């Protein structure tokens, strides 16, 4: 093949957000748009990570993925990359990409040093919806801010990109290697099975035999909803073929480029079918309610865990996994190195860390901050309130791992009594609350509000922080049932491993009784602004841990809305989504 240098000019707004660049497909299909971003990424990497390197290119299979794979492959060839690895049909979940970078050895003994992941995660897909791209490094984790800032800078000055226009399109449907020769020598494309490396890793972490016993026990029943995302490419192989679940326990497990028209976000609002089956919908489900249900997002890094008529908050989930990991999961049998959560995630994990005397870290939102801790051997289990849970087996959050972790805990708690009554998901959570106290928790999202109005609201909240008496005056006016704000700031993170500082990571109001109100702007949307409001209250008194979450939190919610003048700034009387 030959190499062409194509003249181009910068596009505005190619700044990677919390997790890569996410825009409407209509934006991505503009001539040179994707090419500029990919070249800017190559130019941000050290030469050895491009020339002669092996790169993975795949994603959640959303609309425009195949075209993007062909373009990136031709640009990689032109930039001197030695090999491109592609999951069959262009499918690899985000956690599987991380696993492939870390573990996979190519047919010729090669190892990958990076990846372009093609996904907009939980955002809808299709010609009128979102596409996304992000770069992951050789540790398998998202590029750190040093690199994403450089990529962005490069996009603002880019003048040309390299492409191999006459390299034939890859057949991504068939496993195998194709060899080419370019001006600088050989270039190979390897299409490989999307699931086998990931499954191998899962089998090295969990006791599949004990999970199989649970899943095939007549006392247990199971349901998994992939929301037509890429988790479908793994679900049958893992849950049915390896672990013996019934085939009809999988719903929406065929990956689709528009996620069947749905919103592939595993929460109580968007995972409607699963929620109904689990007895948490508006009307009674037809069949028997399963003991355990779970869902994944588009790229399968998120998870929602449900018990029979019972919702597990993600903040509780990571705390419960951490509390039980050593006993229930062979990978952790030697002990946990430490645990970490993102700042807006509830402090349920903090309490476990304290009890178990574990190292504990609080990082900004987004998975890129956990990677440094893990690389330094400081953290084994981590999570976010946004349905993300994971461990140091890879450097991304991992939706199927979280399900296997919960199944392991259930298997462990039931190991001696599969004959008598099941210890349920709800039992496990209530027992956890009784031991550690309960963190009532909710998140309000105001999606697609006017970006200017959102900025003003945030500025207002920062300004208020300079006068706590005024803050407490407003809060008292809203409700007499909340305690006093004793501290207000914008969260800043000082990375203990590389010393880098990330500021303006969310506005915090901290209360005397441990309650917290947090306000952030989303960094993953593709239109307008999304305001996230996180509300948390800690209850240690065992007689008060059984309340309904929305009732327990009502006074704090009231205070938050007054404090932020939410309706005044945004015109919204209610959030778009409550999780
Ligand atoms: C959201 C979540 C954050 C998560 C990120 C990526 O970011 O709040 O916790 O890490 O999505 O998840 P933001 O900036 O919109 O709040 V995924 O599954 O979209 O890669
Ligand atoms: Co995701």
UniProtKB/TrEMBL annotation:
One of its GO terms (biological process) is glucose metabolic process. It comes from the Eukaryota. Belongs to the phosphohexose mutase family. PANTHER family: PHOSPHOGLUCOMUTASE, PHOSPHOHEXOMUTASE FAMILY MEMBER. One of its GO terms (molecular function) is magnesium ion binding. This is phosphoglucomutase (alpha-D-glucose-1,6-bisphosphate-dependent). It is an enzyme of class 5 (isomerase). It catalyses: alpha-D-glucose 1,6-bisphosphate + L-seryl-[protein] = O-phospho-L-seryl-[protein] + alpha-D-glucose 6-phosphate; O-phospho-L-seryl-[protein] + alpha-D-glucose 1-phosphate = alpha-D-glucose 1,6-bisphosphate + L-seryl-[protein]; alpha-D-glucose 1-phosphate = alpha-D-glucose 6-phosphate. Its EC number is 5.4.2.2. InterPro entries: A-D-PHexomutase_a/b/a-I, A-D-PHexomutase_a/b/a-I/II/III, A-D-PHexomutase_a/b/a-II, A-D-PHexomutase_a/b/a-III, A-D-PHexomutase_C_sf, A-D-PHexomutase_CS, Alpha-D-phosphohexomutase_SF, PGM. Its cofactor is Mg(2+). One of its GO terms (cellular component) is cytosol. NCBIfam families: PRK07564.1-1. Catalyzes the reversible isomerization of alpha-D-glucose 1-phosphate to alpha-D-glucose 6-phosphate. The mechanism proceeds via the intermediate compound alpha-D-glucose 1,6-bisphosphate. This enzyme participates in both the breakdown and synthesis of glucose. Pfam families: PGM1_C_vert_fung, PGM_PMM_I, PGM_PMM_II, PGM_PMM_III. Residues 14-161, 197-306, 315-416 form the Alpha-D-phosphohexomutase alpha/beta/alpha domain. Monomer. Keywords: Carbohydrate metabolism, Glucose metabolism, Isomerase, Magnesium, Metal-binding, Phosphoprotein.
């Amino acid at each position: 093949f030959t190499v062409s240098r194509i003249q181009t000019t910068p596009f505005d707004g190619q700044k990677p957000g919390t997790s890569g660049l996410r825009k409407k497909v209509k934006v991505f299909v503009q001539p040179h748009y994707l090419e500029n971003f990919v070249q800017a990424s190559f130019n941000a990497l050290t030469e050895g990570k491009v020339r002669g390197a092996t790169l993975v290119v795949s994603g959640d299979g959303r609309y425009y993925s195949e075209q993007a794979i062909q373009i990136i492959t031709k640009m990689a060839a032109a930039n001197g990359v030695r090999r491109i690895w592609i999951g069959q049909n262009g499918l690899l979940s985000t956690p599987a990409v991380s696993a492939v970078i870390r573990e996979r050895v190519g047919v010729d003994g090669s190892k990958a040093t990076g990846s372009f992941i093609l996904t907009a995660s939980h955002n809808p897909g299709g010609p009128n919806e979102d596409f996304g791209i992000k770069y992951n490094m050789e540790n398998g984790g998202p590029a750190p801010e040093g690199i994403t800032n450089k990529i962005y800078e490069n996009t603002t000055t880019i003048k040309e990109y390299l492409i191999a226009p006459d390299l034939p399109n890859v057949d991504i449907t068939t496993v195998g290697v194709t060899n080419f020769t370019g001006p600088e020598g050989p270039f190979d494309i390897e299409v490989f099975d999307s699931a086998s490396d990931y499954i191998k890793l899962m089998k090295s972490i969990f006791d599949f035999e004990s999970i199989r016993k649970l899943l095939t026990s007549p006392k247990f029943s199971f349901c998994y909803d992939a929301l037509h995302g890429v988790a479908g490419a793994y679900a049958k192989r893992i849950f049915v073929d390896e672990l013996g679940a019934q085939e009809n326990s999988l719903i929406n497990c065929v990956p689709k480029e528009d996620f069947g028209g749905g919103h592939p976000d595993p929460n109580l609002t968007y995972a409607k079918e699963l929620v109904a089956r689990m007895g948490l919908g508006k009307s009674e489900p037809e069949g028997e309610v399963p003991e355990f249900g779970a869902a994944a997002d588009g790229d399968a890094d998120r998870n929602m865990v449900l018990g029979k008529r019972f919702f597990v908050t993600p903040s509780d989930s990571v705390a419960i996994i951490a509390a039980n990991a050593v006993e229930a999961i062979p990978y952790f049998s030697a002990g946990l190195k430490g645990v970490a959560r993102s700042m807006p995630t509830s402090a349920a994990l903090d309490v476990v860390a304290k009890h178990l005397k574990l190292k504990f870290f609080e990082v900004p939102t987004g998975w890129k901050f956990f990677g440094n801790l893990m690389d330094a051997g400081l953290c084994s289990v981590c999570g976010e309130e946004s349905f993300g849970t994971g461990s140091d087996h890879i450097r991304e959050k991992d939706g199927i791992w979280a399900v296997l972790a919960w199944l392991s805990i259930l298997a462990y708690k039931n190991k001696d009594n599969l004959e008598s009554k099941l210890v349920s998901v709800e039992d496990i959570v209530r027992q956890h609350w009784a031991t550690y106290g309960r963190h009532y928790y909710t998140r309000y999202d105001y999606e697609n509000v006017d970006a200017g109005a959102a900025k003003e609201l945030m500025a207002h909240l920062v300004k208020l922080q300079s006068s706590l008496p005024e803050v407490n005056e407003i809060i008292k006016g809203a409700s007499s049932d909340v305690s006093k704000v004793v501290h207000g700031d914008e969260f800043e993170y000082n990375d203990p491993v590389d010393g880098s500082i990330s500021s303006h990571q969310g506005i915090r109001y901290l209360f005397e009784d441990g309650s917290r109100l947090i306000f952030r702007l989303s960094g993953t949307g593709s239109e307008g602004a999304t305001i996230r409001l996180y509300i948390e209250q800690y209850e240690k008194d065992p007689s008060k841990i059984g309340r309904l979450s929305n009732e327990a939190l009502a006074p704090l919610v009231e205070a938050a809305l007054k404090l932020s003048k939410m309706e005044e700034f945004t015109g919204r009387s209610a959030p778009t989504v409550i999780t």
